[in-house]
Amino acid sequence: MMCMEASSPGSRGLGWLVEQLHLQDGVLSESVVRNLLLEANLPSSELAPYIEHREESYARRCVARNEHFELLVLTWAPTQYGVAHDHSGSLCGLKVVDGRLTETLFADGPDGRVRLTSETSHGPGDILTDPGTVVHALANASADEPLITVHVYSPPLPEVRRYAVTEEDPPEMFLRPPAPEAQTVAIIGGGFTGTMVLANLIRQAASASRPMHFVLIDRQPAPGDGVAYRAVDGRHVLNVPAGRMSAWPDLPEDFLHYAQSKNPAIGAHDFLPRKMYGEYVRECLFKLARSAGRHLSASIVHDEAKQLQRASSSGWKIDTAGARTLPADVVVLAVGHRPPKDPLIHRWTGPRTRFIADPWASLALSLIRPDEPVLLMGSGLTAMDVVLTLQRSHRTAPLLAISRRGLLPSAHLRAPKPAIELPKNVAALLHAEEPLMTRELLHEVRCSVQSAIAQGFAWQQVIDSLRPAISHLWTRLDSRERARFLRHARSFWETHRHRMAPEVADTIQQMRLEKKLEVMAGTLLRAEADDHGIDVSFSCRGGSSTRKVRVAWVINCTGPDAHSRHATHSFLGPLLQDGTLVGDELGLGLWTDEGGRTINIHGETHEDLLVAGTLRKATLWESTAVPELRQQAQTSAQIALATLASTLPRSTCPPPGSAVS
C-alpha cells in the first residue's frame, strides 16, 4: 500500500463521502479513492453507529455499497489482527481514524508461501492505497487502545485470497530449475487432492534417478487449503474425527500425530478445526520437499488454467490467465467443485447487492448484522457452516433455511463405533446377474439398518459399512437408475452419509429451539429486492400455500453446479466439445477408467491425462471425502510416473520397479 500524509480537518464528513462515491461512474480509480479519503473529515464520533467491538475478531460494518464500490468501517480491539492476504484485484483505499495501524508486507516465494519483508506503523489521518495485488496483513498492535479504520473497495470485496506464511527458506527443489531433459507432470488444482498428488509424486519418485519436474497450478495462493480448509472461523470443524483423517492411505494416524504435536490433549475422536487440516496438508508436502533428491524440481504457479490442448509433438500445453504457457508430459486434473448454481437468477428483480453467491465468502458474511434476518438457499452442510458463522450470542434476527425436502445433515455418534461388516443382502447386489434398480438398493439398505438396530448396532455403522462398496454399487446402476437415485434418494443419502460433528448438531438444535433458525421444505418462487432488503416468495412442500418473507440477505448454499460442455471449468469446455473428454449425462463429472485415466468419445483412454477428485463422481459417486481422495492422489501419482517411464527411450529406461516406490 501507499501511505499518504494526514489530511487537515474540514467539513466534508461521512455523508459527503458516501455521496461522492455514488456520483462516480463505474469502478473507481486509485487516484479518485485517494483524493476522496484525503478530503473527507471522518471523526470517530460521526462513525459511532458503525463502530462495533467483537471479541472473536475485528468487526466490519458496511456504510454504503453498490455494484461498483463498498464503504466500510473496521473496528479492531487491542491486539486483533488479520491474516496475510491480497484483494483479488479489487482496489483498496483506507484511512486511519483512531489508534495506530500496523501493516506487514510479504513477498511471494517459489514454494507458494510468503515471507515478511517489512512492517510499518500508521496513525490517525494516514491513508493507504493498494491496486489489489499487494500481499499484506493489518493489525492493531496496541495492548490497550482500539483502532478504527475506514475502507473503500472497488469493486466490492466478497473475499480475499489468503496466503500461507512461513519463516523457513524454500526447499531446494523449488529453487532448482528443471533439468533440460526433465519430464514434467502438471497438476491443475491446488486443494487437498492436487497438493497430495504432488506430495505423492515427490514421495514415489524419491528412488528414481531420471530428472523430473512437477508443477502445481492454482489461482488460490495457499497450497492444500481448497474451499474446504480455507475457513478461518474456528467453529468450522472437520466432519470426520481426527483419527480417520490421515492424508496417507498407508499412515492411518498421521494427522492425529500431527495434531497431537500441537496439542497432546487431542484425541482420535475429536473433531478439529478445518484450518488446522489445511496446515497439516501443507506440512505433508513441504516435509517431503525438504528432503527431495537433486533429480527433482518443482514450482507452484499462482494462476488459473484457461486452456488445455495437445502439444504438437507429445504431451500437453497449458495456457493460463496470466499469459503463461506451461508444457507437460502428463497432466492431472484435480480441480474442485464448480460454484453453486443460482436458482433465482431469472426470478430476481432489483439490485443484487444483498445476494451472496458464494457461501464461503467470509468477508461478505461478516457484513451481516445480528439484527438482520437472512434466508439460506439450502439446508446441507454448507448451509450449516454459514449458520455457525452468523450465529453469535447477541443474534436477534432469525435465519431461515429452505431446501426442496427441508432435511438437515444427521449427526455423528458421540462415542464413535466402527463400521459393521457389509450386510449380506447388500453384498449380494454386487454380484447379482440382474441389473440393479434404485428401489431395490434402497430397500436392502433400509432392511439392513432395521436389522442392525434390532441387534444393538447404530444406523451410522451400517452406512459406514457401505462405503467400500459404494463405487461398485454405483457402476451397477444404469444411467436411468442413477438419475432416479439423484432425483429421489440423493438428499436422504447425503444427510446420512455426510454428517455433522456432535457439537455442531447441538448448536443447530439449540438455535432451532430458540427460534433463531427455521428449516423449511419448499421451492423458491421469486425475489424482489430494494436497497434495504428482499421480499422472497416460496411455496411450501406438500401443499398449495405460498409464503412471503422479508429478509435483509439471501445466501446461496445450494451446492456445486453440474458439469457439461457449456457449464464447466473454462479449460475443459473445448475438450468436451471436441470429444477429447466425455462427461456423464447427469453433469457429475468426467468418465474415467478405474485408475482415473480420462476417456475420449471413442472409448479410448488417455494415459497422460488423469483425473483425481470431484470430477470422478461420474464414475465413482463417492469422490469428495478424504478417504477416497487420498487413495486417488496416490494412484494418480503412480500412474503418472509409470507413464513417464514408458515414454523414455529404451536406453534410458530405469530398471523395473524403480520409477514408483
Automatic annotation (TrEMBL):
Entries under SUPFAM superfamilies matching the protein: FAD/NAD(P)-binding domain, RmlC-like cupins
TM regions (residue ranges): none
GO molecular function: iron ion binding; iron-sulfur cluster binding; oxidoreductase activity, acting on single donors with incorporation of molecular oxygen, incorporation of two atoms of oxygen
Coiled-coil features, chain-numbered ranges: none
Residue numbers binding Fe cation: H85, H87, H136
Cross-link 3'-(S-cysteinyl)-tyrosine (Cys-Tyr) per UniProt, renumbered positions: C92-Y153
InterPro entries documented for this protein: 2Fe-2S_ferredoxin-type (IPR001041), CDO_1 (IPR010300), FAD/NAD-bd_sf (IPR036188), HpyO/CreE_NAD-binding (IPR038732), L-asp_N-monooxygenase_NS-form (IPR052189), RmlC-like_jellyroll (IPR014710), RmlC_Cupin_sf (IPR011051)
Domain of life where this protein originates: Bacteria
Keywords in alphabetical order: Iron, Metal-binding, Thioether bond
Ranges where the FAD-dependent urate hydroxylase HpyO/Asp monooxygenase CreE-like FAD/NAD(P)-binding domain occurs: 186-337
The keyword Metal-binding is assigned to this record: yes
Family: Belongs to the cysteine dioxygenase family.
Name of the protein in its database record: FAD-dependent urate hydroxylase HpyO/Asp monooxygenase CreE-like FAD/NAD(P)-binding domain-containing protein
Lineage per the UniProt record: Bacteria, Pseudomonadati, Acidobacteriota, Terriglobia, Terriglobales
